[in-house]
Amino acid sequence: MSARIDFNCDLGEGCGDDAAILPYVTSANIACGGHAGDAATMRDTLRLCRAHGVAAGAHPGYADREHFGRRALALSGEQVVALVRDQLARLAAIAAEEGVALTHLKPHGALYNLAADDRDVAEAIAAAVAGFDPGLIVFGLAQSELTDAAARRGLRVAHEVFAERGYAANGRLLPRGQPGAVIESLDEAVAQVRELAVHGRVRAAGGESIELRADTLCLHGDRSDAPQFARAVRAALEADGVRVAAL
To answer: Of 119, 125, 193, 219, which shows the fewest CB atoms inside 10 Å?
Structure first.
């Protein structure tokens, strides 16, 4: 049983009500100019994090705004290192101006999903973090290549699970567009959160119950009902006696 979990949300993407979500989460993954975001949105989100006492982290993704970073691009390992490092540096510079210390990094979209299974991509992301600030926590899909790569470099790791995404039997997220990939029902999402946070397991699309390490729980901030989901998820966790706190 997990007595504590971090509750994170992808923010600063220009498509959600960040101010309404932040009171309920404990960590924010801030888009830093790749798939979304610019200097103004980064600054605004950092200020909201400071006001609400929410841990701020970088959310780098493929520089592909047309597809919101959800299309994998053919990049070399060196290019992935540069992509992650440059976006992290962009956010870190603004964070320093605002007096906010960055605590973590979580890749976005296709980069995140690719790093779950592609060791080379995972190693490149871990190398970028280690070279920039080895004190940052790497958020990665639970029990994936990314969490393994970061751990091998001696970085702190947070195994991540999802409130409103469906799972395959191998513990990976169902691809968007596939039936069950996105959980639209608040009740279903809350039930999944409780299973993950309290029991460390989730029911996959085929009906199998799979065990997953759950250090941090993600809610996507770009959904229109994200504030309602955030409030309900936070209430459910606290009702079950789970301490919700940043890592």
So the answer is: 119
Looking at residue 222, its pLDDT comes to 86
Whole-angstrom distance, CA of residue 117 vs CA of residue 175 = 14
Residue 3, pLDDT score? 81
Beta-carbon contacts of 157 under 8 Å, excluding residues fewer than 6 positions away, are 137, 138, 140, 147, 150, 151, 215
Q: Could you give the C-alpha distances from 241 to 22, 62, 106, 229, 235, in angstroms and in order?
A: 21, 38, 27, 19, 10
* Both structure tokens of 121: 């991509």
Q: Rounded to whole angstroms, how far apart are CA atoms 122 and 149?
A: 6
Q: How far is CA 219 from the centre of its chain?
A: 8
Question: What CATH number did the domain enclosing 157 receive?
Answer: 3.20.20.370
Instruction: Tell me the residue range of the domain where 44 lies.
Output: 4-244
pTM of the model: 0.95
Sorted by sequence, the CB contacts under 8 Å of residue 218 that are 6+ apart come out as 8, 9, 10, 29, 160, 161, 162, 163
Q: How many domains does the chain contain in total?
A: 1
Report, as ranges of residue numbers, the positions in the chain whose pLDDT lies below 50.
Answer: 1-2
CA 179 to chain centre: 22
- Cα torsion angle, 142, 127, 133, 105, sign: negative
Q: What is the pLDDT of residue 1?
A: 44
Q: Which residues of 138-158 are buried (b: 16+ CB within 10 A; e: fewer)?
A: bbbbbbbbbbebbeeeebbbb
Angle at Cα 129 formed by Cα 126 and Cα 135, nearest 5°? 115
Task: State the pLDDT at residue 209.
Answer: 96
